[in-house]
Amino acid sequence: MAVQERTGRSTKPRRPESPAPAVPRREAPAAGTDQGFGASQAGRLLAVLRVATGLIFLWAFLDKMFALGWATPSGRGWIEGGSPTAGFLGSVSVGPFESVFNSWAGAAWADWLFMLGLLGIGLALVLGVALWPAAIAGALMLGFMWAAVWPPARALSDGSPSGSTNPFVNYHVVYAAVMFVLASTRAGDTWGLGRIWARVAPVGRFPWIR
Q1: Is residue 64 part of a domain?
Q2: How far apart, in whole angstroms, are the C-alpha atoms of residue 165 and residue 23?
Q3: DSSP result, 59-120
Q4: Domain assignment present for 192
Q5: Which range marks the domain in which residue 126 is found?
Q6: Is 44 helix (H, G, I), strand (E, B) or coil?
Q7: Domain annotation covers residue 196
Q8: What share of the chain in percent tops pLDDT 70?
Q9: For a pLDDT cut of 90, what percent of the chain falls above it?
Q10: Can you tell me the distance from the alpha carbon of 134 to that of 131, in angstroms, rounded to the nearest whole number?
Q11: Spatial separation of the C-alpha atoms in residues 103 and 89, rounded to whole Å
């Protein structure tokens, strides 16, 4: 009878080890969502900043429309026949575009564009929808206003001090930057209608109107 040598090792063939399952990569949640960053204090602060910025535009619209007595004197509201651009553009007295802005003062097309811009940007920010279009339109409007006050000038065209304290950055630049920050972080998803807006068919096809 043959004797088999025992080596202490199992003669049973070893099964190949199966590779570890791949872990799907999770993308970081957007700042405006209710997960992760969006539920944090920073996400809520962005929502507060969004609403506050929107109210600045909405208040300007309401004051110029109904002459609430703050920036627009009583009786000179747009609904009463006043012009929301005549005062500001007509008083421009500095910068290379002074004559251009003066010629636009009180024009019907300027009044309509200005008021529709204030209303649209303000509503978009407060509701948290269409933040990218609002940021682009807001930056364009604020850019014109920056050119109208022309911060680089130390003196007005009549030689009097302009009152400018910074030749480049003023509140127009800051507001424009804030709106782009709100749009890029999807700040409308927190305390806003951003997530509902994202489910609208055209928004899904064209993310730039998100």
Answers
A1: yes
A2: 55
A3: HHHHHHHHT-SSSS-TT--GGGT--TTHHHHHT--SSTTHHHHHHHTT-HHHHHHHHHHHHH
A4: yes
A5: 39-209
A6: helix
A7: yes
A8: 81
A9: 73
A10: 5
A11: 8
* Mean per-residue pLDDT, 184-200: 94
The token pair that represents 181 in the structure block: 């920050």
Cα 67 to Cα 29, 72, 206: the distances in Å are 43, 5, 38
The residue behind tokens 């096809």 is 205
Which helix (H) or strand (E) segment holds residue 147: the answer is helix 131-149
The residues near 39 (Cβ < 8 Å, ≥ 6 apart) are: 33, 190
How do residues 147-167 score in pLDDT, each as one tens digit?
A: 999 999 999 999 999 999 999
Residue type, 78: W
Residue with tokens 């978009």: 124
* Spatial distance between the Cα atoms of 145 and 153, rounded to a whole number of angstroms: 14
Q: Total structural domains in the chain?
A: 1
The DSSP secondary structure of 114-140, one letter per residue, reads HHHHHHHHHHHHHHT-SHHHHHHHHHH
In a domain, 106, yes or no: yes
